[in-house]
Design goal:
9 strands; about 20% strand; alpha/beta; Rossmann fold; four-stranded parallel sheet
Length: about 240
């Protein structure tokens, strides 16, 4: 059994912890959660034998500890993947992981198709577009991150991420899967069906593909984020299962 700890005890962290406790990652043993609110650090979990840490906290929390976690030979599944928009952070994390043999596994979050994206990137003329589909603003609650987004946008993935760094981690992790920021652009579109979600458009000199993930409406509340949290469990199963894909 692979021992797994969780950094973060908020909404996403609780979804992940609940999934681990229900046995949704059968090759793994959940050993505990770390957060300031409960007075347990991620290094306490490592002392207890954690081999993989799932981060569901904040970018600042992740940045403050990821290098030291990796240097101890412990792998990380981060949800705050936006930290890798900083090239210095990316390089430091890369060197720490390479030096210790630990891994940083990027979950697919709200989008997916990383295997397809990385395959497309191996052929010439690779182009990728990450698309945030945002419904007409008239139906969006004032004060949400979507309310503050432009109605339409086209630019680089880093420019797109900068529009709302706390909510567009998916743009950064997808660009990494696509082979780099220079191969990936970002757009905001108004969907014809009025449903919010993400799309990924891929193209190279041999093929093209489109994947769209749409959120189902949640009356009186924000979009459900369980898919984002559970992507870490799906990834954990691919890491630990005797048969992987």
């Amino acid at each position: 059994m692979v021992k797994v700890g969780v950094l973060g005890n908020g909404k996403l962290g609780k979804i992940i912890i609940d999934a681990l406790n229900k046995g949704l990652a059968p090759e793994c043993e959940f050993i505990g959660a770390a957060s300031r609110s409960i007075g347990i650090t991620v290094f306490d979990l490592i002392e207890d034998g954690a081999e993989i840490i799932i981060e569901a906290a904040t970018p600042d929390a992740l940045k403050s500890c990821i290098v030291d976690i990796l240097k101890k030979g412990v792998s990380v599944i981060p949800l705050s993947t936006g930290i890798f928009a900083d090239p210095d952070c990316f390089e430091e994390v890369y060197k720490a992981a390479k030096g210790s043999g630990a891994k940083v596994y990027l979950p697919h979050g709200a989008e997916g198709a990383f295997d397809l994206a990385s395959t497309f990137s191996l052929l010439p003329e690779m182009k990728a577009t990450v698309i945030q589909n945002i419904p007409d603003h008239s139906g969006i609650k004032t004060g949400t991150f979507i309310d503050g987004m432009p109605r339409e946008f086209k630019g680089s993935v880093l420019e797109g991420f900068a529009l709302s760094p706390a909510h567009l981690n998916v743009a950064i992790e997808t660009a990494i899967a696509c082979g780099g920021f220079d191969k990936t652009s970002f757009e905001i579109r108004i969907p014809e069906d009025g449903r919010m979600g993400f799309s990924l458009e891929l193209e190279n000199d041999r093929a093209e593909a489109t994947l769209t993930v749409k959120s189902k409406p949640v009356p009186g509340g924000p979009p459900d984020r369980s898919m984002i949290a559970l992507s870490t469990i799906s990834l954990l199963n691919r890491i630990t299962s005797p048969i992987s894909f």
